[in-house]
Design a protein that fits this description.
Immunoglobulin-like; mainly beta; 2 domains; 5-stranded mixed beta sheet; 307 residues; Lipocalin
C-alpha cells in the first residue's frame, strides 16, 4: 500500500502520450434519488499503464460526521476513465458496509494533456439485497496537496510519510553482548504561543446572514485533537476536543470582514491536528477541512455580501 502512495507522487510529474490523469481531485457526489451531496476526493496514480489510488467520501447526518477511505483501481476505455472501489481501508460508519456493494465512477476524458476536471457519473453495484444507486460526480484537480483531507488522513494512517513528524531509526552497538538495539526517536516541532504562529488561510467565503452557525468535527481517525477558536482575536471556544459529533457555536457578524482562527492545542496521537468546520449561512452550508500544528494556525475569512 505504501508503494502505491509513493508511485502517486512520482507519477504526477511524469508525462506520456495519453492524457495524464495522475493527481488529486476534490468535489462532490450527488445522489440522483435523494438529491443530497457528499464531499468526495480522489487521488490517482498512473504508472506503467496501471492506475491506482484512494478515495475519500464524507457526509454529515444528524450532527455527526461520517467518512470512508478506500483504495481504488482504474482503467481507460472508450473515452472514459472508469474508477472502481478496490478495498475499504477505514470508516466510522455505525454499521458495517454492505458486502458485495462497491462504487464505480465513469469520468469523461478530454483532449487536454492533463485531466483538469474529473466529471461524470457514478453508480453502486446491485446485489440480491440492494438496488443500485447512481448520480453525478463533479470534481476538479488541485495541485496543492496541503488542501487535501485525503492526503492528510493517509499520513495519519501511516500510508504516507509525514515530513514534519517523521520517525527515524538509529542503531546502537553494545560492547557487552554486541547486539543491535533499535531506538525510535520521534521528531516533533517546537511549541509556539498561538499568537506567534504562522497563519495559513484555508478559505474565503461570502455570506448573506448576520449570524452563522458553526460546527466542529474531527474529520478522520479520532485521536484526541483539541482546538481553540478565535473570532477577530476574541476567544469563542477553548480547548475543545474534536469528535465525530459536532461541537456547535453561533457567531454574529458586523459589516466588516471576520477572521475565524483555528488553533491546535495539541497534536493528538497522530499529528498534525486535523478537522472539519461547517458554516451554515441560511440554507447554504460550507464544509472546510483544516490542518494546524504547534507552529501554524488555520484561518477562515468570512465576508458579508453587500445588499
Amino acid at each position: 500500500m505504501k508503494n502505491l502512495v509513493l508511485l502517486f507522487f512520482i507519477s504526477i510529474s511524469l508525462s506520456c502520450s495519453a492524457q495524464v490523469v495522475s493527481g488529486i481531485y476534490m468535489g462532490k457526489l450527488t445522489n440522483d434519488s435523494t438529491k443530497k451531496n457528499q464531499t468526495y476526493e480522489l487521488a490517482l496514480s498512473e504508472y506503467r499503464g496501471k492506475i491506482r489510488g484512494f478515495s475519500y467520501t464524507t457526509f454529515v447526518s444528524n450532527d455527526t460526521f461520517y467518512y470512508s477511505i478506500k483504495s481504488i483501481k482504474a482503467y481507460k476505455k472508450d473515452g472514459q476513465l472508469i474508477v472502481e472501489d478496490d478495498k475499504m481501508i477505514v470508516n466510522n460508519f455505525p454499521e458495517s458496509p454492505a458486502k458485495g456493494v462497491h462504487q464505480i465512477n465513469y469520468i469523461k476524458l478530454t483532449n487536454e494533456d492533463t485531466l483538469r476536471e474529473a466529471v461524470g457519473t457514478w453508480k453502486t453495484t446491485q446485489t440480491k439485497i440492494y438496488y443500485s444507486l447512481h448520480g453525478e460526480m463533479q470534481t476538479k484537480r488541485d495541485d496543492d496537496s496541503s488542501k487535501s483531507a485525503l492526503i492528510g488522513h493517509l499520513k495519519e494512517l501511516n500510508l504516507i510519510a509525514n515530513d514534519n513528524y517523521r520517525k527515524t531509526e538509529t542503531k546502537q552497538n553494545t560492547t557487552e553482548n554486541k547486539t543491535k538495539v533499535k531506538t525510535i526517536i520521534a521528531e516533533t516541532e517546537k511549541t509556539l504561543p498561538y499568537n506567534q504562529r504562522k497563519t495559513k488561510l484555508m478559505q474565503v467565503i461570502d455570506v448573506s446572514s448576520d449570524s452563522l452557525h458553526l460546527a466542529f468535527y474531527d474529520n478522520g481517525v479520532i485521536d484526541g485533537d483539541s482546538i481553540s477558536v478565535y473570532q477577530n482575536g476574541k476567544n469563542i471556544l477553548m480547548h475543545y476536543r474534536l469528535a465525530a459529533v459536532a461541537g456547535k457555536k453561533t457567531i454574529h457578524l458586523d459589516n466588516n470582514s471576520t477572521e475565524i482562527l483555528l488553533v491546535a492545542e495539541n497534536l493528538g496521537t497522530i499529528p498534525p491536528n486535523t478537522g472539519l468546520v461547517t458554516i451554515k449561512d441560511g440554507e447554504n452550508i460550507y464544509q472546510i477541512n483544516f490542518t494546524a500544528d504547534m507552529q501554524t494556525n488555520a484561518s477562515i475569512i468570512i465576508r458579508r455580501k453587500k445588499k
